[in-house]
Design goal:
This protein has 299 residues and is an all-alpha fold. The protein contains twelve helices and no strands. Helix 3 packs antiparallel against helix 4.
C-alpha cells in the first residue's frame, strides 16, 4: 500500500513538470539561437555608449562647475562683505549709543559741577562784599579746583588780590585770565593799570593798545594812552591818541586841552589852532588859553 502511494506521487510530479514545460515551450521555440550572440554584442555596445554618455555628462557638469566657481566666489565675497558691513553698522550703532550715554552722563556731571561752582562763587562774592578778602580768596580757589578754566573765579580771585594790595599775585592772575579770555578788553585795561602801578610804563602802553584795538569806542582809553605816550617821550603818538579821544568826545575840555598841548609840542599849528578854538568855546574860563595862544603864535 505505501508503495502504491509513493508511485502515485511520482507520477503526479512528472505530470506537473510536463504541463509547465508545455506552457513555456512556445517561448523557447521562438528564441533565435543564431542571433543570440549578436544581441549580446548590441547590449554591450549600448552599455558602452550609455557609460560614455554618462562620463561625458559628468565631465560637462564638472566643467560647468569650474566655470561657475568664480561666480560663486564673487557671490561668496559679496556675501562676506555684506556680513562685514552689517557687522560694522551694528558696531557703529552700538558705539553711538555708548557715546550718547556718556554724553548724558557728562551732562549730568557738568550741571552738578556748575551748580557747585556757582555756590562757591556766590559765597566768595558775599565775603568780598563784606571786605573778607581772605575768605573770598578761599572760595574762589575752591571754584577753580573744580573748573580750572572758570573765568569768573579767576577774575574774582584777581580782584580779591588787588583789593588786598597783593599786586604781584593780582597781576599774575589777571594775566592768566587774559590768556584765557583774549577778547576781554576791560581786563587788558586792568592789566595796564597794574603795570603802571609797578612803573612798567611800556608794558602798560602795550596792554592799553591791545584794549583799544579790541574796542575803539571808549574815549578815556585813548586819553590815557596819550598821557602814557607823553611819559615815555612820544608826543607824536600821543597826538594821534588824543585826536581819537576828541573824535569820540569833541566838546570834552580835558581832551581839547591835551590835544592843544600835544599839537604845540609836535609843531602842528593847524591842529593846535583848531584845538585852541574848540577849547575856548567849550571852556572860556580855562586859565591856559592865553598861554596856548602865545605858544601857538611861536610855531
Amino acid at each position: 500500500m505505501p508503495g502504491i502511494i509513493f508511485i502515485s506521487i511520482i507520477v503526479a510530479a512528472v505530470l506537473v513538470i510536463g504541463a509547465v514545460i508545455a506552457r513555456k515551450f512556445p517561448v523557447v521555440a521562438n528564441l533565435d539561437l543564431e542571433n543570440l550572440t549578436e544581441e549580446q554584442e548590441q547590449r554591450k555596445k549600448r552599455e558602452l555608449i550609455d557609460r560614455h554618455l554618462l562620463d561625458k555628462g559628468r565631465e560637462a557638469h564638472a566643467k560647468f562647475q569650474n566655470k561657475l566657481s568664480p561666480i560663486k566666489k564673487v557671490w561668496e565675497f559679496v556675501q562676506d562683505r555684506f556680513r562685514h558691513y552689517v557687522g560694522r553698522i551694528e558696531k557703529l550703532l552700538h558705539y553711538e549709543e555708548l557715546v550718547k550715554a556718556r554724553q548724558r552722563a557728562k551732562q549730568i556731571s557738568f550741571d552738578e559741577r556748575n551748580k557747585e561752582i556757582g555756590m562757591f562763587l556766590a559765597q566768595a562774592g558775599a565775603q568780598a562784599a563784606e571786605g573778607n578778602y581772605d575768605k573770598a580768596e578761599e572760595y574762589y580757589i575752591a571754584a577753580i579746583k573744580i573748573d580750572k578754566k572758570s573765568a569768573a573765579a579767576y577774575r574774582g580771585l584777581a580782584d580779591a588780590y588787588f583789593a588786598k594790595g597783593v599786586i604781584d599775585e593780582a597781576a599774575q592772575t589777571y594775566d592768566f585770565l587774559a590768556r584765557l579770555t583774549p577778547g576781554d578788553d576791560a581786563l587788558l585795561v586792568k592789566l595796564s593799570e597794574l603795570a603802571e602801578q609797578k612803573d612798567k610804563i611800556n608794558e602798560a602802553i602795550n596792554y592799553l593798545e591791545r584794549a583799544t584795538t579790541i574796542n575803539d569806542s571808549l574815549s578815556p582809553r585813548f586819553n590815557r594812552l596819550a598821557e602814557l605816550y607823553i611819559k615815555v617821550g612820544h608826543p607824536e603818538l600821543a597826538l594821534e591818541a588824543i585826536q581819537q579821544a576828541v573824535e569820540l568826545e569833541p566838546r570834552n575840555p580835558k581832551y581839547l586841552d591835551l590835544l592843544a598841548e600835544n599839537a604845540i609840542l609836535c609843531g602842528d599849528r593847524a591842529v593846535a589852532e583848531k584845538a585852541f578854538e574848540e577849547l575856548r568855546l567849550a571852556n572860556p574860563e580855562n586859565q591856559k588859553l592865553s598861554e596856548f595862544r602865545v605858544r601857538i603864535d611861536k610855531i
